[in-house]
């Protein structure tokens, strides 16, 4: 209250130039004519950051003054993507910076290209968190994101002879102008040890005697709302060895051991685990989870809340939103704080705990549900394990009271699994403790309540809800697609940037030939730009004008990249065998982007096979360049921003009932690509909104897939009865794509598709091929296609993450926007 506000920077070219040169001279210590491109990039980034700083400090002051209900988004991943452009847009500096740098003879595009994106996430879940904090700021919600500052983010993917090779992601190597470390605000996080009887005598209390500690150092990132005067905070924690850590061992005289021990502590935030399903139960991963959760809870309770705050009123001040089960250890941590540290009775603590956590589930695959062995959890967090046991005892009593005599149900619902080893089921813990549980698309939420968490939904039907995912229109339309953004704004004004439903206003223009022509021109320019990017980034040459058919997502059997591959191989087989005349083939560029988890052998084999097929097709002159396969390595947010605006066709072909939502599907539709997709995840909602005639649906429905799987799926029957499918698979198996090699990846993928395939790719092959024929036919009519594309843009405003956040506010958080002074 007493600190005088910092004077805001002036929004003029002269002022911007002055600040930029000051940063270059005093921040980097160089003159403009001697500055490297990196010097200029860092100076520019800091200059832009400083323009937002006044608002940031103001937001923090207001947050402390207002004591409004706050949302803390707890997530092990924030896949932020490049920061510079987004910050310039939010601060309304894009034009000023452009002009200023042009006058100085500095090439802004060259500087932008230097930014290394913080890839602190695996895929959909991490990118969703990044979209959500953008929308929270833009919607003026008092909120903070909490996560981990990994020193190495998602690995950099390279291909060697077509095979994925992982390289460390050294994103910090050239400096990190977007973060502000605060080592003086480090908090301690404890691990290991044992528990002893407590002094206080309150019900449930024990005392934890840990045996090692690390310091958690906060690094703050600004999260600017879109030109609304609010700048929120993302707080990422980095692990440092404590001094105590040093003293113990240095005193023992073993210098080398002491230094090694520091490394051990600092390992905790060293690297992001690259699995995005089938968690491995690794000790370091659990250390990461508790590390960031314990630091984040302490941070909120001790620095955001006033010192005299009565924690009984906690539910009026906070919702901790749990992004999947990764932060669920927060539940026993809060209980420990209230019961052991603050001396509350168990029942009081549990009553409050049950009102402050809400849980978002992001999967349907049983193998993706996290469990922690009791053995490991008890060693690392002995007190938390005791607390989980007591939560479970009381929960099980509740189940028995509600369903007397139903011991099978008790076993199914227990937080503790007994088989194959004793383990804590984190999704059960989250569901028991959370006051709300949500899925991420209508179908997904339904399947959660009907299948994955059915017993829980029977017990607490009111607890389950849906919030369909969304994506931020600032990054994925306004920034990624300036051409389309300009066209939209010219037609309906710029209100759509923060109120995406306004895109509806474009609907009548789908019937306007001149509008469609301009829309096609923009798409064509975006394709040429994407072709330039591929050439410069990867040395990949593609035609500037072919249909861009994109499948970009993590490599997973359930997502069925192999079904896409079969389509390509079948086309190639048809052409080379003379069944399909070459001039009947729509020129297409198949674009793949996909990282495989390093230990996921079949996913890596699929990558190798896509690359082998691609190399063969791309080298085959007889195709006259009509088909191309482009598989740029290391697909990331930066590349997505160039690909998505260029795409004509969006491939969303998971087995129905397996993809929780998908968010790439939304980005493509919003940029005017048509979807070829199954009735899965948010595809269902996209199709409902754009209309059947503007969407290429294929494949089994979820009930059909579940039924086939239950009856027994026999891939051989499809192989034998569909001659085209057989021909494609046989061509694959023949070794023509692999230099005659029929073993290795070829044999393995052939067997995985034709012997037993949980994701039943062959069952949907015929229907997929038919859908692709409909795509070709539709694409041939440019006017009709662009009409559909415009309607896709006009009708998918629902998928703004602003709408998702509004749904969270209405259905879950009960928090309210707090407007800043502008
Ligand atoms: C867990 C334990 C150990 C190591 C890694 C993990 C882990 C990390 C990420 C597990 C899952 C992770 O992400 C899952 C994910 O990205 N799910 C996707 O979430 C999106 C946003 O809701 C949905 O759109 C996708 O359908 C869903 O697959």
From TrEMBL:
CDD domains: GT35_Glycogen_Phosphorylase. SUPFAM superfamilies: UDP-Glycosyltransferase/glycogen phosphorylase. It comes from the Bacteria. It catalyses: [(1->4)-alpha-D-glucosyl](n) + phosphate = [(1->4)-alpha-D-glucosyl](n-1) + alpha-D-glucose 1-phosphate. Its EC number is 2.4.1.1. The keyword tRNA-binding does not apply. It holds the Pfam family Phosphorylase. Keywords: Carbohydrate metabolism, Glycosyltransferase, Pyridoxal phosphate, Transferase. It is an enzyme of class 2 (transferase). Its cofactor is pyridoxal 5'-phosphate. PROSITE patterns: PHOSPHORYLASE. The keyword Transferase applies. Allosteric enzyme that catalyzes the rate-limiting step in glycogen catabolism, the phosphorolytic cleavage of glycogen to produce glucose-1-phosphate, and plays a central role in maintaining cellular and organismal glucose homeostasis. Phosphorylase is an important allosteric enzyme in carbohydrate metabolism. Enzymes from different sources differ in their regulatory mechanisms and in their natural substrates. However, all known phosphorylases share catalytic and structural properties. Belongs to the glycogen phosphorylase family. This is Alpha-1,4 glucan phosphorylase. It comes from Demequina sediminis. The gene is malP.
């Amino acid at each position: 209250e007493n600190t005088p506000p910092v004077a805001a920077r002036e929004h003029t070219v002269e002022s911007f130039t002055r600040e930029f040169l000051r940063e270059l001279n005093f921040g980097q210590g160089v003159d403009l004519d001697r500055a490297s491109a990196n010097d200029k990039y860092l100076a520019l980034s800091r200059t832009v950051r400083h323009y937002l700083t006044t608002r940031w400090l103001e937001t923090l002051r207001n947050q402390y003054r207002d004591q409004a209900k706050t949302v803390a988004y707890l997530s092990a991943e924030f896949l932020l993507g490049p920061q510079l452009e987004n910050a310039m847009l939010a601060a309304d500096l894009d034009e000023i910076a452009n002009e200023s740098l042009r006058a100085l003879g500095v090439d802004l595009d060259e500087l932008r290209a230097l930014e290394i994106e913080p890839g602190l996430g695996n895929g959909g879940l991490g990118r969703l968190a990044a979209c959500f904090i953008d929308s929270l700021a833009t919607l003026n919600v008092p909120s903070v994101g909490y996560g981990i500052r990994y020193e190495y983010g998602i690995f950099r993917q390279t291909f060697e002879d077509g095979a994925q090779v992982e390289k460390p992601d050294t994103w910090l190597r050239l400096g990190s102008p977007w973060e502000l470390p605060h080592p003086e605000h480090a908090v301690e996080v404890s691990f290991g040890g044992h528990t002893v009887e407590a002094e206080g005598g309150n019900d449930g209390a024990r005392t934890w005697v840990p045996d090692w500690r690390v310091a958690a150092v906060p690094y703050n990132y600004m999260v600017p709302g879109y030109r609304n005067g609010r700048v929120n905070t993302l707080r990422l924690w980095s692990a440092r060895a404590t001094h105590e850590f040093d003293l113990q061992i240095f005193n023992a005289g073993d210098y080398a051991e002491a230094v090694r021990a520091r490394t051990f502590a600092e390992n905790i935030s060293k690297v992001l685990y690259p699995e995005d399903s089938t968690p491995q139960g690794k000790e370091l991963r659990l250390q990461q989870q508790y590390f960031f959760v314990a630091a984040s809870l302490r941070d909120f309770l001790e620095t955001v809340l006033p010192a005299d705050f009565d924690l009984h009123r906690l539910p009026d001040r906070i919702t901790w939103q749990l992004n999947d089960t990764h932060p669920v250890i927060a539940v026993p941590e809060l209980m420990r704080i209230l019961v052991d540290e603050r001396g509350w009775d168990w029942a009081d603590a549990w009553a409050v705990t049950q009102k402050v956590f809400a849980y978002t589930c992001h999967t349907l695959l049983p193998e993706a549900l996290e469990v922690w062995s009791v053995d490991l959890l008890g060693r690392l967090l002995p007190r938390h394990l005791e607390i989980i046991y007591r939560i479970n005892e009381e929960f099980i009593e509740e189940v028995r009271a509600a369903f007397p005599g139903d011991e099978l149900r008790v076993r199914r619902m227990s937080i503790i699994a007994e088989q194959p080893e004793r383990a804590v089921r984190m999704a059960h813990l989250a569901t028991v403790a959370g006051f709300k549980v949500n899925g991420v698309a209508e179908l997904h939420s339904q399947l959660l309540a009907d299948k994955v968490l059915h017993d829980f939904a029977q017990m607490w039907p009111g607890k389950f809800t849906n919030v369909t995912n969304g994506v931020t229109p600032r990054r994925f339309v306004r920034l990624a697609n300036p051409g389309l953004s300009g066209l939209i704004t010219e037609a309906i004004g710029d209100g759509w940037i923060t109120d995406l439903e306004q895109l509806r206003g474009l609907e009548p223009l789908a019937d306007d030939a001149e509008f469609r022509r301009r829309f096609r021109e923009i798409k064509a320019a975006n394709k040429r730009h994407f072709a330039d990017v591929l050439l410069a980034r990867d040395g990949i040459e593609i035609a500037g004008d072919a249909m861009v058919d994109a499948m970009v997502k993590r490599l997973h059997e359930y997502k069925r990249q192999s079904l896409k591959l079969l389509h390509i191989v079948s086309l190639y087989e048809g052409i080379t065998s003379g069944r399909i005349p070459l001039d009947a083939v729509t020129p297409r560029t198949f674009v793949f982007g996909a990282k495989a988890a390093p230990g996921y052998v079949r996913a890596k084999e699929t990558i190798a096979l896509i690359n082998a097929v691609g190399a063969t097709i791309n080298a085959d002159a007889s195709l006259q360049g009509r088909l191309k396969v482009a598989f740029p390595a290391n697909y990331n947010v930066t590349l997505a921003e160039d690909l998505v605006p260029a795409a004509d066709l969006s491939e969303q072909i998971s087995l129905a009932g397996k993809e929780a939502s998908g968010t790439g599907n939304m980005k493509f539709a919003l940029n005017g690509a048509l979807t070829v997709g199954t009735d899965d995840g948010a595809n269902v909602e996209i199709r409902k909104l754009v209309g059947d005639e503007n969407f290429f649906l294929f494949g089994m429905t979820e009930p059909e897939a579940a039924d086939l799987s239950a009856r027994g799926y026999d891939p051989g029957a499809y192989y034998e009865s569909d001659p085209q499918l057989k021909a494609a698979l046989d061509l694959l198996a023949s070794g023509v794509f692999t230099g005659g090699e029929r073993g290795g990846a070829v044999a393995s993928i052939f067997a995985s598709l034709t012997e037993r395939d949980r994701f039943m790719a062959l069952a949907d092959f015929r229907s997929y091929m038919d859908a692709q024929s409909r795509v070709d036919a539709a694409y041939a009519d440019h006017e009709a296609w662009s009409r559909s594309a415009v309607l896709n843009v006009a009708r998918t405003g629902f998928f703004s993450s602003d709408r998702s956040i509004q749904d969270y506010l209405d259905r879950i958080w009960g928090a309210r926007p707090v407007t800043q002074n502008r």
